[in-house]
Design goal:
The complex is a heterodimer of chains A (186) and B (711). In chain A, 21% of the residues lie in helices and 26% in strands. Chain A has 6 helices and 10 strands. Chain A is globular. Chain B has 27 helices and 23 strands. In chain B, strands 5-4-14-13-12-6-7 form a 7-stranded mixed β-sheet, with helices on one face. In chain B, strand 9, helix 7 and strand 10 form a beta-alpha-beta unit. The longest helix of chain B is centred in the N-terminal third of the chain and has 17 residues. Classes of the chains: A alpha+beta (186), B alpha/beta (711). The interface between A and B is large, with 41 and 55 residues.
Chain lengths: 186, 711
């Protein structure tokens, strides 16, 4: 299997959203002079879950990028064949030139991660910083994470790393190509 | 000047001032990172600095007020006109012997910030956010250790050994107010086997990662620490060698007598933490190789001087001072003085006290940078005639801000404003600028030179960071530092013989064999790289008069504070029936609290990438008793004000507390005015009007206020 991936450690994510803003900047998603809150595109979002009631509670946070699905519904939904799963990396990419702006992919995506550019009529999303990683870099979310909660690499190796470090892989959350892990619960 | 590539400089989205790299393309900022040669991290506010730089609300020319103060009506004027108005007024003030009635309110980025030099040379006062900040912590550290750890001196978390204990007492360390690397270092220490304990009425992001969250009541922190001290001493668990060698003779005996009745059981009643938990943490701390405590001014209710005292005693009896994992006592960077060094106004000689007519009541307390802490009160007393404001937003973020705006608009017998001139430097128009006679367009931190070397180990080490212009400023913006230097040349030229800010910094750097140019070429950082541990052994003692730690403060015997008082802050117990909840003004990592920098920033207000508005956090069980549903509009009433906002039900807060994020409710700014944000300061009494509560506890209870909640 060739699959590049992110491993997101819930024991380290503090939900600070630094990665979201760094990603927006790198991918040129913000028109800084015109931007208004709640209208800015994003390739990542933070989710969190509380368990228990006061005072016995716990809260976990994590980020949700494109999951680069094994059998991506967005690829099937797109009538323009604009979306592909790159055979060399497993990265699901949208070809902006081919995109006809039908938004079928947005409807089909179970993770709600696809953005739409109204002005230029195309869908766009996380591509694991495709150009950057081919030049030896790491995805911007990985580079900028305040707590080093996100790792980048081949999925098989990330899984091995998690096991070596005694991390628990959260199987339900890791159904596609992104791995979610946490410290073993004592 | 159009630069390209990654340029090292220093962030100023908040007071932490982290070393960053900025990627510039054709004179435009594209990206920001933590500087890997510094601590390597930047937070979400830092990343969103680009939205500040290119904000459409940037102010680009000087403005002069045309309407009344508060109306926000202006006309453009030239810099020459603006500077002439200020010069004439300051000259007249000095000529009539009232130079000390000038206050400049700003954040001193360095010990010799040019603005501060001007004030010292001219004879005016500095006002910072200290009273509602960490003044009491600083004073407690000076009294006990002779050092000045402030809130930028948390334990160096990367020095915490395996099995060390990290205590955050009402301190949101993951909130990005210290260096952005702090959360990483805390989590790394945890991964090494250190333990994180969070004392906080709110289940913060820090609490979510803690090994142990202790939901203490606000202001219970002094009692909690006294209970631990009692347990440690009574059970002979204290660090005997350290106490014998480094505590002033007689102080430990006085402490033993004092804490005899401060048992965990007795203190439990005050702090609402089970006695067994106080004992458990005390045991663990006594056995741990290190204990580091980070706090701000104590938990929430600001019993700050007592808490700072108890905190210092705790560190002393456990021997956690200037050791890896404990409280660092870093040295100052050895910079060269710029001669002649202005002395500054002598408060004593002037017979001046920050509480004006109340000085006989409050003369026990001597804090630092204290003269016009209470601007509203100083204006009313006739002690503040010219106010120059920069990098602050008192009209929105001063507690009891209505008192501030009323005082600023107050007129005397001749119908003239009692505050004769109000000048505000602004990057974008703010709430405060509405009241200003002159609004001056400041440069952003991407557009100016600044030499940073406060004793804040986390950011600068024992060293220096260079903030340098990476892009050109828009319009006619001028950095306030250079405007103050210009005013210095006009009014006190003997202290301002250097050409500009860069030459001023060159003089300070000379003793280290550096210059601004050389520092720039080196990458903008210089450090000794050694923070040093147990330096008191080398230097023969601490900076106190005796060279030992002073656990007993004889100068405060008259105020009944020679030893820390465990009781709750006065407000905690007043009119509980009428105002059953304690309102906690809390901070998030997304907003710095000072106003427009972050609150008028679209990325930081976006619901996905930031924090949009501030519904009231209320515990689900407490809300159920009041039949309040999630998202419902409720009214919050305090003794001094009332606001309406939405309720957000949560399990993440004590049932007797409610939480409101600070800094919202602006009426100025395209983004700042969006959403349903409300201003917590409407609910908080003005500091100067409640001196009998607030001043005696060594700060202000601005972060907690008694309120009632109604549908």
């Amino acid at each position: 299997m060739k699959q590049l991936s992110l491993m997101i450690d819930l024991s380290r994510c503090i939900g600070c959203k630094t990665c979201i803003v760094a990603c927006q900047n790198f991918h040129g998603l913000v028109d800084y002079e015109a931007a208004l809150p709640n209208e800015i595109p994003f390739y990542l979002r933070v989710e969190s879950k509380r368990e228990g009631v006061y005072p016995e509670i716990s809260v976990n946070s994590w980020v949700v990028p494109c999951q680069h699905c094994k059998n991506a519904p967005c690829i099937k939904a797109c009538k323009s064949d604009a979306i592909t799963k790159d055979p060399h990396t497993g990265i699901v990419r949208i070809n902006k030139e081919k995109c006809s702006g039908e938004k079928d992919c947005i409807e089909a995506c179970p993770y709600n991660v696809i953005q739409f550019n109204k002005q230029e009529n195309y869908a766009h999303k996380c591509d694991l910083c495709f150009d950057l990683i081919h030049a030896g870099g790491t995805p911007v979310c990985v580079e900028t994470c305040m707590t080093d909660a996100i790792s980048f690499g081949e999925k098989s190796l990330l899984r091995q790393q998690a096991q070596d470090e005694g991390k628990e892989i959260l199987k339900k959350m890791s159904a596609q190509s992104i791995l979610y892990v946490q410290n073993q619960q004592v | 000047m159009k630069k390209n590539g990654w340029i090292p400089t220093v962030c100023y989205q908040c007071k932490a001032e982290c070393a960053i790299m900025v990627r510039v393309e054709d004179g435009c900022i594209k990206e920001i990172r933590g500087n890997p040669k510094g601590r390597g991290k930047a937070c979400v506010k830092g990343m969103a600095g680009i939205s500040l730089e290119y904000n459409k609300d940037r102010l680009t020319q000087p403005l002069k007020r045309t309407g009344k103060r508060g109306e926000g009506k202006f006309e453009p004027i030239s810099w020459d006109e603006a500077l002439d108005i200020i010069t004439d007024k300051l000259k007249a003030l000095k000529d009539r012997g009232e130079a000390h009635k000038l206050t400049a309110s700003f954040f001193p980025h360095s010990i010799t910030d040019p603005k501060w030099r001007f004030l010292n040379a001219y004879g005016g006062f500095i006002n910072t956010a200290l009273p509602h900040c960490d003044s009491a912590k600083i004073v407690a550290c000076i009294k006990t250790m002779g050092g000045v750890p402030n809130h930028h001196l948390p334990p160096a978390w990367y020095t915490v050994p395996k099995d060390g204990i990290m205590i955050l007492a009402g301190r949101h360390a993951f909130g990005g107010l210290d260096d952005a690397s702090v959360p990483l270092h805390i989590l790394d220490a945890k991964a090494r086997g250190a333990k994180l304990v969070v004392l906080d009425p709110i289940f913060t992001a820090d609490a979510a990662k803690a090994d142990w969250w202790i939901p203490i009541n606000p202001a219970g922190d002094t009692a909690f620490f006294l209970g631990m001290i009692n347990h440690i001493i009574t059970n002979d668990l204290y660090n005997k060698k350290f106490v014998e060698n480094w505590v002033r003779e007689g102080d430990f005996d006085k402490l033993k007598d004092y804490i005899e009745d401060k048992t965990p059981e007795a203190m439990s009643k005050i702090c609402d933490v089970p006695a067994a938990d106080i004992r458990k943490l005390a045991d663990e701390c006594a056995k741990a190789p290190s204990v580091g405590v980070d706090s701000f001014k104590g938990i929430m209710l600001g019993q700050a001087l007592d808490f700072g005292h108890a905190w210092n005693i705790f560190l002393a009896v456990t021997g956690n001072i200037d050791n890896p994992g404990g409280q660092p006592l870093p040295d100052l960077t050895p910079m060269s003085p710029v001669e002649p060094v202005p002395a500054g106004p002598d408060l004593h000689e002037l017979g001046w006290h920050r509480t004006g007519k109340d000085k006989d009541t409050f003369s026990h307390y001597s804090f630092i940078m204290e003269p016009t802490w209470y601007q509203a009160q100083a204006i009313k007393n006739g002690d503040l005639k010219v106010l120059i404001n920069s990098e602050a937003n008192p009209a929105l973020t001063e507690m009891g801000q209505k008192e501030w705006s009323d005082a600023v608009c107050m007129t005397g017998d001749n119908d003239e404003y009692k505050l004769e001139l109000l000048v505000s430097y602004e990057i974008m128009l703010s709430e405060t600028s509405k009241y200003a006679d002159l609004v001056l367009p400041d440069k952003s931190y991407f557009e100016r030179w600044e030499l940073l070397y406060m004793p804040w180990f986390y950011n600068f080490e024992t060293g220096i960071l260079l903030r340098q212009p990476v892009v050109e400023a828009p319009g006619e913006c001028r950095h306030s530092n250079n405007v103050f230097i210009e005013l210095g040349k006009r009014l006190v030229p003997e202290y301002f013989s250097f050409k500009d800010d860069v030459e001023y910094y060159d003089i300070q750097l000379a003793g280290l064999g550096l210059s601004v140019k050389k520092l720039q070429d080196m990458g903008g950082l210089w450090s000794t790289r050694a923070m040093g541990f147990k330096k008191y052994e080398q230097s023969g003692g601490f900076g106190t008069p005796s060279g030992k730690l002073h656990l007993y403060w004889e100068d405060l015997e008259g105020a009944n504070q020679a030893m820390p008082r465990p009781g709750l802050a006065p407000e905690y117990e007043v009119e509980i029936d009428k105002y059953p909840f304690i309102l906690i003004s809390y901070r998030t990592i997304f907003h710095s609290g000072a106003g427009q920098w972050t609150l008028n920033n679209p990325q930081l207000r976006d619901k996905v990438s930031g924090f949009f508005d501030n519904p009231l956090l209320i515990n689900e069980a407490a809300a159920a008793k009041l039949n309040i549903k999630d998202g419902e509009t409720i009214t919050i009433t305090s003794r001094t004000g009332q606001v309406k906002c939405k309720a957000k039900l949560t399990e993440r807060i004590r049932p007797d507390c409610v939480g409101l994020a600070h800094g919202f409710g602006s009426t100025v700014g395209t983004t700042a005015t969006m959403g349903e944000g409300v201003n917590d300061n409407i609910l908080i009494p003005d500091a100067g009007s409640t001196l009998n509560w607030q001043d005696v506890v060594g700060g202000e209870s601005h972060v907690s206020t008694r309120v009632r909640i109604e549908k």
